[in-house]
Amino acid sequence: MSSDTIFTKIISREIPADIIYEDDEALAFKDINPQAPFHCLIIPKKPIATINDIQVEDMPLIGHLYRVAAQLAKENGFADEGYRVVMNCNANGGQTVYHIHLHMLAGKAMGWPPYTEKLKV
Ligand code: AMP
C-alpha cells in the first residue's frame, strides 16, 4: 500500500491544515469534518498505514502520540472534564486515511457504544 496519503501532504505542507502542534516525530491538526466541539488528529510523521503495521520499534512513537493528546487536552482545558482518544483500523473500524492517527475529541460528553445496531451475542 502506498504511504503517500493526504496526511503525508499535510506533513510536507503540500496541502494546508490547521496545525496546532508539531515536533520532530508528530503533528496535530484540526479535523476538517469535526465530530465534537474540539476534534483534532495526532499523527506520526513516520507513515504507518494501520494499527496492524505498528512494529516493536514504533512503541515509543505510539506512546508519544498519547502524550501529545494529553498535552493538547491540558492546554485546551479538557483534561479534567475528559475527552475521547480513538484510532480506527481498516474498514470495520471506520478508517478512511491509511496513515495512523489518533482522533482527539472533546468539548461534550461522548456517547458509548460507537455503533448504532444492537449487538447480538
Ligand atoms: P479515519 O476515518 O479514522 O481514517 O479518520 C480520517 C479523518 O481525517 C476524518 O475524520 C476526516 O474528516 C479527516 N480528514 C480527511 N482529510 C483531512 C484534511 N485535509 N484535513 C483535516 N482532516 C482531514
List the topology elements.
Blueprint lengths: L5 H6 L7 E4 L3 E5 L7 E7 L14 H17 L7 E4 L3 H4 L8 E5 L15
The site of adenosine monophosphate has 12 residues, from loops.
Summarize the structure.
The protein has 121 residues and is α+β, with helices and mostly antiparallel strands. Helix content is 22%, strand content 21%.
* CATH fold annotation: HIT family, subunit A
CATH architectural name? 2-Layer Sandwich
What summary fits the major beta sheet?
5 strands, antiparallel
The CATH homologous superfamily is called HIT-like
In whole angstroms, the N-to-C terminal distance is: 35 Å
Shape: globular
Please list the strands of the largest sheet in the order they lie side by side.
Answer: 1-2-3-5-4
Helix content: 10-25%
CATH class: Alpha Beta
Helix-strand topology string: HEEEHEHE
Domain count: the total is: 1
- Share of β-strand residues: 15-25%
List the main descriptive attributes of the protein structure presented here.
121 residues, alpha+beta, HIT family, subunit A, 3 helices, 5 strands, binds adenosine monophosphate
Q: Can you describe this structure?
A:
With 121 residues, this protein is an alpha+beta fold. The chain is 22% helix and 21% strand. It is globular and about 40 Å long. Adenosine monophosphate binds next to loops.
